[in-house]
Amino acid sequence: MSNIFDTSMEALTHSQAQLTVGFKESNEMSDSATPNLPSRSFEKTFHFYRGLGFSERWHDKNWMILERGDLVLEFFPYPDLDPLTSSFMCCLRLDDLDAFYAVCKDAGLAEKPSGQPRLHAPEVQPWGARMGALIDPDGTLVRLIQN
Prior knowledge:
Elements: H1 4-19, E1 36-39, H2 42-50, E2 55-59, E3 64-68, E4 71-77, E5 89-94, H3 97-106, E6 118-124, E7 130-135, E8 141-146
Parallel strand pairs: 1-4, 5-8
Antiparallel strand pairs: 2-3, 3-4, 6-7, 7-8
């Protein structure tokens, strides 16, 4: 004999199973945060980051998710963004800053004092870490920090 509680638990279990399709088991998940960055054009943003080794995980008209190994960047449409006045930024904490920086240079990004896209060479910061930067085509400052 079943009661309403048993029926509700069966429905809940079925709903949970549907929600977890495509996700890691809960014991495999770890907490994370991803930057949500502006894009004037998903096509142009993807083309730029693909040159840095990122691939597309998700894309629809309202959101795009790119990944490169454990790095994940998420983008929202902002067609009217002025790259010269953008204050968007994020940090990529990298196990091998020099290797990633070399990928950026190999992709044709130049070290220059203004404009975008551009690179700033890694330097030891007053707080002790090595950090470089890239400015993407939408004016987002992406700090590149050695782990």
